[in-house]
Every structure is written in structure tokens, then in C-alpha cells.
């Protein structure tokens, strides 16, 4: 019989944290050993519980500090919380490389940061990146519950960045846009891609990618109607993180999609 993977959940009392604790408790081969929330010390909690993997669904303001604490504590990290930038990801990659240089071969720590663990969202992002080079225009609309604290969503930022990279690779220039006045109505600019954020009671997490050419349009849409939609991706990352030392950004890398 193989040992169960001991898992801590950070942000355990939150919307995602609570759903994740329930998923871990009922998952084969996993054991929930710590529920960590505001006021708890992350390092102490993971050390005392013996956690091997910690899942972070806290808030943008604290998630990077949590990941550094987990690396120092020798714990793999699976991160769903948003708020990441190129700079904060680079700091984590460097920290992980330092820590792993001092660990035995094959026992490096992994950090998986996934802007979205939902399969429909991961596929929508992949399809959008694939399609982007063929269209003159592309805009992203993300729609969420009104309790969300950040905008645009991490998923929309990741999507826009992927579209922008695909356009750059294809040698496409800026998108057509004659706007002179009223830029505040044109959404956020993420790498030259316009991103619009809707907050509406009743919604959970949704994204629409609009791609346009003269005389035609492609719309890619995904809907998470329930937070359980994120759980298969979270559990996959928990089971796989130890096989991916260093920093991995995006669930697509664990799904053989990238
Ligand atoms: N990657 C993905 O697939 C998904 C990512 N998300 C992201 O996950 C994050 C959490 O979302 P959601 O669950 O809706 O938010 P919630 O606000 O419901 O949950 C966040 C939890 O973290 C707690 N918290 C705050 N500070 C700390 C701290 N220092 N240490 C430990 N816990 C802390 C909060 O406590 P308190 O409320 O008392 O401050 C709260 O219980 C967001 O960034 C969201 O965008 C959400 C869905 C899917
Ligand atoms: O806050 C949320 O709810 C979600 N956050 C993530 C994001 O910002 O992309 C993932 C999903 O959209 C739900």
C-alpha cells in the first residue's frame, strides 16, 4: 500500500479553500492534514502537520509570501490564488532553483501556479492562443461573481498574454481601433489586448474570447457554473507537482496540451 500524500490548504475558510478541503478529503490517495487561514503562520502550520503539498487559495496580497514560506519549509506548492506578475513569478522561480540546488537529485520542490484549474478554461485559453494569429482583432471578456477582489481575472490576463505572444510570433501589428475619446470604456490593456471585466450577482467564473476578421467572428466561451469544476485540475496538480521541480505556470503543462 502506498502512503497518502499529506496536503495542507491555505485560505481554507474561503470559497475555493472550503471546496478544496472537501475535494481533498474525498480524494483517493490524499490526506488533508491542515486547514490554514488568516491569522495562522504558514510555516508553523505546514511543519506541525507534516504536509508534503500545500494548496494556496488565499488572496493576491499574500500568495507570493506564502509560496516563499512553503519553499523554505520544504513543501511543494499548488497555487490557484491570483495576483501574480512576471516579476513575482521570476522571484519564485529563482527561489525554487536555489532550494532545489541543495536537495538530492530527483527530490526537487515543485511550484505549480495555475490561473485557472478548470478544464474548460484551460482549453479555451489554448484554443484562443492557437486561433489568435489568424485574426485581425481579439478581445477578452471575463465575467465573475461580485465578491471577486481583483480585475481583470488571472485567467483573462493569462489568456490575453497568450494571444499577444501568438500575434507577436506571427508578426501581427496592433489591432485596428479608431478610438480617440473614452478609453475608459475600452477595458484594460494587457500586452496590447483589451480585457473587459463584468461583475454580476449569480455568476461564478466565465470567459469569452472574441476574434474578428472582415465578415467573420469566432467566439470561444467557457463557463464554470460551480467551483467543483476546478477540483479535478487541483487534484491533478497535487498528484503531479512533485514530478515537476521548479516553477510551472499553467495546468496545460500537466495535461500534455502545451
Ligand atoms: N486558479 C483557479 O482555478 C481559481 C482561482 N481562484 C482564485 O483563488 C483566490 C481565492 O478565491 P476565493 O476562494 O473566491 O476567495 P475568498 O476570499 O473566499 O478566500 C480567500 C481566503 O483566504 C483567507 N486569507 C486571507 N489572508 C490569508 C493569509 N495570510 N493566510 C491564509 N489565509 C488567508 C481569507 O480569509 P478572510 O476572508 O478572513 O480574509 C479567505 O478565507 C482568488 O485569488 C481567486 O481569484 C478562484 C477560483 C479558481
Ligand atoms: O475569483 C474567482 O472566482 C476566480 N479567479 C480566477 C481568476 O481570477 O482567473 C479563476 C477563475 O476565473 C475564478
From TrEMBL:
<feature type="binding site">
    <location>
        <begin position="154"/>
        <end position="155"/>
    </location>
    <ligand>
        <name>(S)-2,3,4,5-tetrahydrodipicolinate</name>
    </ligand>
</feature>
<protein>
    <recommendedName>
        <fullName>4-hydroxy-tetrahydrodipicolinate reductase</fullName>
        <ecNumber>1.17.1.8</ecNumber>
    </recommendedName>
</protein>
<feature type="active site" description="Proton donor/acceptor">
    <location>
        <position position="144"/>
    </location>
</feature>
<dbReference type="InterPro" id="IPR000846">
    <property type="entry name" value="DapB_N"/>
</dbReference>
<comment type="subunit">
    <text>Homotetramer.</text>
</comment>
<feature type="binding site">
    <location>
        <begin position="80"/>
        <end position="82"/>
    </location>
    <ligand>
        <name>NAD(+)</name>
    </ligand>
</feature>
<keyword id="KW-0520">NAD</keyword>
<keyword id="KW-0521">NADP</keyword>
<feature type="domain" description="Dihydrodipicolinate reductase C-terminal">
    <location>
        <begin position="121"/>
        <end position="255"/>
    </location>
</feature>
<dbReference type="Pfam" id="PF05173">
    <property type="entry name" value="DapB_C"/>
</dbReference>
<comment type="function">
    <text>Catalyzes the conversion of 4-hydroxy-tetrahydrodipicolinate (HTPA) to tetrahydrodipicolinate.</text>
</comment>
<feature type="binding site">
    <location>
        <begin position="114"/>
        <end position="117"/>
    </location>
    <ligand>
        <name>NAD(+)</name>
    </ligand>
</feature>
<feature type="binding site">
    <location>
        <begin position="11"/>
        <end position="16"/>
    </location>
    <ligand>
        <name>NAD(+)</name>
    </ligand>
</feature>
<comment type="similarity">
    <text>Belongs to the DapB family.</text>
</comment>
<dbReference type="GO" id="GO:0050661">
    <property type="term" value="F:NADP binding"/>
</dbReference>
<feature type="domain" description="Dihydrodipicolinate reductase N-terminal">
    <location>
        <begin position="5"/>
        <end position="117"/>
    </location>
</feature>
<comment type="pathway">
    <text>Amino-acid biosynthesis; L-lysine biosynthesis via DAP pathway; (S)-tetrahydrodipicolinate from L-aspartate: step 4/4.</text>
</comment>
<keyword id="KW-0963">Cytoplasm</keyword>
<keyword id="KW-0028">Amino-acid biosynthesis</keyword>
<dbReference type="GO" id="GO:0009089">
    <property type="term" value="P:lysine biosynthetic process via diaminopimelate"/>
</dbReference>
<dbReference type="GO" id="GO:0008839">
    <property type="term" value="F:4-hydroxy-tetrahydrodipicolinate reductase"/>
</dbReference>
<dbReference type="GO" id="GO:0051287">
    <property type="term" value="F:NAD binding"/>
</dbReference>
<keyword id="KW-0560">Oxidoreductase</keyword>
<dbReference type="InterPro" id="IPR022664">
    <property type="entry name" value="DapB_N_CS"/>
</dbReference>
<dbReference type="InterPro" id="IPR022663">
    <property type="entry name" value="DapB_C"/>
</dbReference>
<dbReference type="InterPro" id="IPR023940">
    <property type="entry name" value="DHDPR_bac"/>
</dbReference>
<feature type="binding site">
    <location>
        <position position="145"/>
    </location>
    <ligand>
        <name>(S)-2,3,4,5-tetrahydrodipicolinate</name>
    </ligand>
</feature>
<keyword id="KW-0457">Lysine biosynthesis</keyword>
<dbReference type="GO" id="GO:0019877">
    <property type="term" value="P:diaminopimelate biosynthetic process"/>
</dbReference>
<dbReference type="GO" id="GO:0016726">
    <property type="term" value="F:oxidoreductase activity, acting on CH or CH2 groups, NAD or NADP as acceptor"/>
</dbReference>
<feature type="active site" description="Proton donor">
    <location>
        <position position="148"/>
    </location>
</feature>
<keyword id="KW-0220">Diaminopimelate biosynthesis</keyword>
<dbReference type="InterPro" id="IPR036291">
    <property type="entry name" value="NAD(P)-bd_dom_sf"/>
</dbReference>
<dbReference type="GO" id="GO:0005829">
    <property type="term" value="C:cytosol"/>
</dbReference>
<feature type="binding site">
    <location>
        <position position="35"/>
    </location>
    <ligand>
        <name>NADP(+)</name>
    </ligand>
</feature>
<dbReference type="Pfam" id="PF01113">
    <property type="entry name" value="DapB_N"/>
</dbReference>
Amino acid at each position: 500500500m502506498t502512503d497518502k500524500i499529506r496536503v495542507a490548504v491555505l485560505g481554507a475558510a474561503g470559497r475555493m479553500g472550503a471546496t478544496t478541503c472537501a475535494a481533498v478529503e474525498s480524494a483517493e490517495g490524499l490526506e488533508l492534514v491542515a486547514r490554514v487561514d488568516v491569522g495562522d503562520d504558514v510555516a508553523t502550520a505546514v511543519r506541525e502537520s507534516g504536509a508534503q503539498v500545500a494548496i494556496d487559495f488565499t488572496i493576491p496580497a499574500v500568495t507570493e509570501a506564502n509560496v516563499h514560506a512553503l519553499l523554505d519549509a520544504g513543501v511543494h506548492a499548488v497555487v490557484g490564488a491570483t495576483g501574480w506578475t512576471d516579476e513575482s513569478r521570476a522571484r519564485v522561480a529563482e527561489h525554487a532553483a536555489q532550494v532545489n540546488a541543495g536537495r538530492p537529485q530527483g527530490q526537487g520542490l515543485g511550484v505549480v501556479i495555475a490561473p485557472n484549474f478548470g478544464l474548460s478554461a484551460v482549453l479555451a485559453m489554448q484554443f484562443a492562443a492557437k486561433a489568435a494569429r489568424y485574426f485581425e482583432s481579439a478581445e477578452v471578456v471575463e465575467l465573475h461573481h461580485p465578491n471577486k477582489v481583483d480585475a481583470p481575472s488571472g485567467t483573462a490576463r493569462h489568456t490575453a498574454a497568450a494571444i499577444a505572444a501568438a500575434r507577436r510570433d506571427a508578426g501581427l501589428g496592433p489591432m485596428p481601433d479608431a478610438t480617440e475619446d473614452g478609453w475608459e470604456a475600452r477595458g484594460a490593456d494587457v500586452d496590447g489586448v483589451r480585457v473587459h471585466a463584468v461583475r454580476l450577482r449569480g455568476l461564478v467564473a466565465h470567459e469569452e474570447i472574441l476574434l474578428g476578421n472582415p465578415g467573420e467572428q469566432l467566439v470561444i466561451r467557457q463557463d464554470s457554473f460551480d467551483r467543483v469544476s476546478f477540483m479535478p485540475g487541483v487534484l491533478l496538480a497535487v498528484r503531479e507537482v512533485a514530478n515537476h521541480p521548479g516553477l510551472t505556470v499553467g495546468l496545460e503543462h500537466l495535461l500534455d496540451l502545451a
